[in-house]
């Protein structure tokens, strides 16, 4: 449509018409849409939906469809969470980048650790602040043991299962070494998948040895750059201006908000349980409190 106007317009008229177009639709405009991915991954409760593929897919698709886009920027601030959701978000970003033939630039804010770093690896380049925390390439799982507590309270545990290992790691039963061995075997498999993803994404840029990079340790920005986990120290605004010019446009692609978006299906997995919070809402509070404590604990691990 722009070319048709250009062909039929009088000299100078086209320039005047361009003044009425939004800047990002003008020919030659450098546009880098920005997507913010913030929070724990896969941690979903009614009032605290975490990052999931279903929750961010539409936002990512909109970013990669922006007209005149020269690249897509990801702003990441996540301490991690579900390895499955982390990898699915990573894969969707890489699929869209390949389809649209657009580079992806990842910018780490406070933290890109564990699953958060996995998502950052979807960037063709990773930038961070000198005080950002990156890494934690490992797998963690935990629970509690309440068997002695219920004994003291005079509570008898009654559990009925079909399947020898169905009650594996039940917190109200004594810990079984065989169950722990099975869990650790699963963790090793997931860890191997994580390591392969990082190596496949970062390739020869990785400078540290495996027994340094993949122990679950994490580092601040400059050290992470030295280890090849990131490509440089830099903020989004300065980096994009240096690369695409002072007039680069950086529209933020946000999730739809409001009642209409909820009616159209924006709810994240588990949002249907909001019904339980109608009225007084007491039913959902214990789960919500536990979720808040778990989320706080994940962030606190990195000092936030």
Supply the key terms.
7-stranded mixed beta sheet; elongated; 2-enoyl-CoA Hydratase, Chain A, domain 1; 304 residues; 7 strands; single chain; 12 helices; alpha/beta
Structure in a nutshell:
Helices cover 40% and strands 11% of the residues.
Descriptive account of the structure:
The chain is an alpha/beta fold and 304 residues long. It has one domain (31-138, 193-300): 2-enoyl-CoA Hydratase, Chain A, domain 1 (Alpha-Beta Complex), CATH 3.90.226.10. The chain is 40% helix and 11% strand. It contains twelve helices and seven strands. It has helices at residues 2-8, 13-18, 53-64, 83-100, 115-120, 147-152, 177-202, 210-213, 221-226, 236-244, 259-263, 285-300; strands at residues 34-38, 72-78, 104-113, 125-128, 133-135, 218-220, 232-233. Strands 1, 2, 3, 4, 5, 6 and 7 form a seven-stranded mixed beta sheet that branches. Helix 3 (53-64) packs parallel to helix 4 (83-100). It is elongated, with a radius of gyration of 24 Å. The termini are far apart. The relative contact order is 0.16.
């Amino acid at each position: 449509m722009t070319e048709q106007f250009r062909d039929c317009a009088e000299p100078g008229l086209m320039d005047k018409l361009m003044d009425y177009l939004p800047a990002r639709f003008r020919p030659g405009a450098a546009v880098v849409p920005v997507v913010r991915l913030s929070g724990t991954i896969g941690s979903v409760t009614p009032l605290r939906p975490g990052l999931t593929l279903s929750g961010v897919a539409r936002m990512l698709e909109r970013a990669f469809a922006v007209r005149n886009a020269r690249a897509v920027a990801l702003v990441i601030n996540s301490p991690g969470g579900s390895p499955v959701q982390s990898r699915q978000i990573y894969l969707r970003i890489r699929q869209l980048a390949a389809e649209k033939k657009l580079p992806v630039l990842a910018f780490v804010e406070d933290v890109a650790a564990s699953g958060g770093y996995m998502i950052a690896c979807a960037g063709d380049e990773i930038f961070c602040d000198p005080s950002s925390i990156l890494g934690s390439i490992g797998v963690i799982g935990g629970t509690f043991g309440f068997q002695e507590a219920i004994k003291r309270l005079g509570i008898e545990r009654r559990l009925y299962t079909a399947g020898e290992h169905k009650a594996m790691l039940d917190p109200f039963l004594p810990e079984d070494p065989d169950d722990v061995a099975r869990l650790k075997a699963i963790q090793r498999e997931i860890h191997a998948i994580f390591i392969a993803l990082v190596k496949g994404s970062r390739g020869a840029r990785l400078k540290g040895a495996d027994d340094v990079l993949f122990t679950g340790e994490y580092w601040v920005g400059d050290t992470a750059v030295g280890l090849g986990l990131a490509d440089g120290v830099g903020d989004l605004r300065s980096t994009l201006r240096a690369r695409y010019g002072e007039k680069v446009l950086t529209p933020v692609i946000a999730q739809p908000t409001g009642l209409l978006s909820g009616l159209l299906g924006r709810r994240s997995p588990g949002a249907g349980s909001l019904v339980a919070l109608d009225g007084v809402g007491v039913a959902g509070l214990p789960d919500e409190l536990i979720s808040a404590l778990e989320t706080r604990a994940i962030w606190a691990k990195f000092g936030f």
